Amino acid sequence: MRNHLRTFTLLAVLTALFVGAGYMVGGPTGMLIALLFAGAMNLVSYWNADRIVLSMYRAVEVDASHPEPLIRNYVADVLELAGRANIPAPRVYVIDQDQPNAFATGRDPQHAAVAATRGLLSMLDRREIRGVMAHELAHVKNRDTLTMTITATIAGAIGALANFAFFFGGRDEAGRPTGLIGAIVIAVIGPIAAGLVQMAISRGREYEADRAGAEISGDPQALASALQKIEAYAKGGYFNPDAERNPATAHMFIINPLAGGKGDSLFSTHPATHNRVEALLGMTGQVRGPARGTAVPITRARRTGPWS
């Protein structure tokens, strides 16, 4: 409940930023035009976001009849986990990419899709893959895919308004131009503030999906182990050219796919992996899961920082 409240609060802040930027750029008329523009963008995103992002990554749909046993197991596990989550079976995709990663997309649970890279399917064991896909199905169940589409759209609209303000100047409450200084403030502060809010929403939804995914799979240790492995491979230099060409989609993945996206800071789209692992390990014994261990031993992440 706390994470949901935090998300709604941040969405309200993002909306207020957007309305304020629109008003400063063009007064009431500019605000109305901006709202109509954002509404059109949201409508397009709502109906087509899944097709757009799957096309970006050249994802291929697979089913239980696939000739590769590894992919058949992957499909079977996704369908079984969807049943445990009490949501409709999503479409299942594979991305021909060496970097281990996964994401979910779709406007609602009835029109959802999940995708995993070949790198993830080959580098993780079956329990860890189940943990990752349970995390993605938690995003579907919580409608995070729609939430993040809306936040990305509004943040992008704020950026467009900021560029408009920089070239054409903003306006004060009386409709008079605010001048170059005001335009620069809107152009610089607006996109930064919007980006920070968008990233904060993304981090909050990742924690919630970790928790809900562990409950769906009944195996928080498997997801913790998977996160450690995925981050280790990411630090090993696996380059994802599709993600680098489309950085706005980075928040969709279970681990940030971008080079240089490993830090845990205000500017991170994802929480620090060691924090996520620690939270998952804290759930051990609280949910029912398989008794056997994962393929690799899970070590508790050491706290770092001045208060450790």
The DSSP helix count reads: 9
| Radius of gyration (Å) | 21 Å
Helix content: 55-70%
How is the largest sheet built, in terms of strand order? Answer: 1-2-4-3
Query: What is the makeup of the main sheet?
Result: 4 strands, mixed
Structural overview:
The two termini are 28 Å apart. Helix 1 (2-56) packs across helix 5 and helix 2 (69-85) packs across helix 4 (126-141). Helices cover 61% and strands 7% of the residues. It has 308 residues and is α+β, with helices and mostly antiparallel strands. The protein has a four-stranded mixed beta sheet, sandwiched between helices. The protein has nine helices and six strands; from the N terminus they run H-E-H-E-E-E-H-H-H-E-E-H-H-H-H. Strand 3 and strand 4 form a beta hairpin.
Which helices and strands occur, and which strands form pairs?
Blueprint: H1 2-56, E1 60-62, H2 69-85, E2 91-95, E3 102-105, E4 113-117, H3 118-123, H4 126-141, H5 144-168, E5 170-171, E6 177-178, H6 179-217, H7 220-235, H8 241-245, H9 273-281
Parallel strand pairs: 2-4
Antiparallel strand pairs: 1-2, 3-4
